[in-house]
């Protein structure tokens, strides 16, 4: 049924349709509307046979999900940003134990400076945690990915993180086709755990493993993620058949035919990029876009195949490895090794700064004009003058003070004090 | 069959004398039907108080739940010595996740079972003092305030023994640990620090809080059984000497546990909904010196010239416990 609905509400409805047995969550913006809505749905009985734990922290939330999943219950949580970092230890534990927990990550920047707005620093910081990471482009896809995520997680006994841009998607009202309970029940069978705490068949979960078998246990984790590279597209096909729309899969190729320049990106910014691609195609330029829906496991072979005809690949990503460079860019460079293609690393949209069509267009004009150095990390819409003023200022005086405050002063956002 | 002489070794405490009791009153460990939840062959040190405590706690809980039980374990000695891969000493469903999340994992297990209408299966969480009073404390408090249906057991050996005997929030003053050495004018752990978590547990007004020692195993089993008769959050704090960490003889584990109680250093009591309901009184009061002297972690307090001033401060702590909980022997107060 089509509804004009907020992204968070739509996701809460999708999660409800998946019938989780335990939801454990701790509030953090911009995830809050999802877990508030789920609390309502448990209280009213719309979501029956579900225990909702209001835990003391995100670490507690993930830990409770670990316990619940170990007890054989379908388990779900949602978080953002600092909350994901606070869970970090438990994230690695959940994947190491092979517990099929599903989590929504409402993508948000990581402080300091504290910032509640959208970027992908949170997801990227946990890219090696052993969780499958799926990125939604729209709220429709966020809904659909959650339904697929439970199937994927439980088939492989691997946890899955569904990433959706904080505020941009979570707080956006748009038309979403919400499936029926019958449709979801037909797609997602009841959870049959691959391991469970059962007094009639006692098992030890979480034993200590030394050098004699640790590598093999870790290899199995990797092997399961490799299996996911086959299963993710299969589930997308099956979903298409059952629900009549295309959602999920590994990649989203957009006008790649004969494209010489391809923009690679994740999440909601793809819409903006596709519009720029359309405009440039109208001008006769051979542009295309490649959305990465499944970032972990990394579909290296599929990315290579998709980019095999390109001359230039511009990776626009909302996070970066400080002191090193792009993250998606590095993965893309790895996937295209040996191909005659230049990969440009561009960081944009940090801390909620909008990535506009104009910015993307200006970037692509620079790339096409040969003005962008492919061997350097680039920052979209960076105010370099302001950075240089602050660097200059902090070189003088014994105690130059906090950068963030001075940057805001320079901008005129802080009224008190002077810059001199 | 030759006549076997029955040795009577009742000492006037609850510790022995099973053979003098009616079968129904005998300890769970003395019964044929004990579950051996933590079975033999594990790798605990000789004289480990925690292994002894865990064995009694879990078998008593298994009996109380008719075997319908799951155990959750925080990281620590107990987890390490019981599960060197691919061996396991656990004869019951057992889950270990991390060091600091035992109470939250246990709460999750309880919720997961309830969601499947299997709340007939009960949950016991267990950790050492580090996993309980320090790194797991936020999770523990959360589990308490939500009144999750979990019995959480802390095996308190007063330090981080698994990592090489460092100070925890449960390490007593003056005790030498690897990072509170007997150096400087105030040797050992500082006075005026640390916490006694049973009192903090009581502040949550949960259904049941109790303390116990491995010197009185009948009492320990009784408290486990009682704890399992409640639903909601329950807390059992068990005093378990650590021969390795304390520098004590392996055969002194029970003796030290008894002296801790008899000196007033460790108060043994029960509380319901935030109020103390029962106190296990001292039978024969001993000065703290008698408890401290056999332990190398207090060696710097003895000898020549020794630190009688510090011993006096420790005695004052014991006296405060005695006054606060009314621990004096019957008729002495």
Question: Would you mind describing this structure in some detail?
Answer:
- The complex is a heterodimer of chains A (420) and B (333).
- With 420 residues, chain A is an alpha/beta fold.
- Chain A has two domains: 2-243, 3-Layer(aba) Sandwich (Rossmann fold), CATH 3.40.50.970; 251-379, Rossmann fold (3-Layer(aba) Sandwich), CATH 3.40.50.920.
- Helix content of chain A is 42%, strand content 18%.
- Chain A contains 15 helices and 16 strands.
- In chain A, strands 3-2-4-5-7-6-13 form a seven-stranded mixed sheet, with helices on both faces. In chain A, strands 10-12-11-14-15-16 form a six-stranded mixed sheet, with helices on both faces.
- In chain A, helix 1 (7-17) crosses helix 2 (32-44), helix 7 crosses helix 9 (214-243) and helix 11 (300-306) crosses helix 12 (328-335).
- With 333 residues, chain B is an alpha/beta fold.
- Chain B has one domain: Thiamin diphosphate (ThDP)-binding fold, Pyr/PP domains (Rossmann fold, 3-Layer(aba) Sandwich), CATH 3.40.50.
- Chain B is built from eleven helices and eight strands.
- Chain B has helices at residues 49-64, 77-82, 102-115, 129-134, 137-145, 197-203, 217-228, 243-246, 253-262, 288-292, 308-325, and strands spanning 69-73, 94-96, 122-128, 150-156, 208-213, 234-239, 269-272, 275-279.
- An eight-stranded mixed sheet of chain B has the order 2-1-3-4-6-5-7-8, with helices on both faces.
- In chain B, strand 1, helix 2 (77-82) and strand 2 (94-96) form a beta-alpha-beta unit.
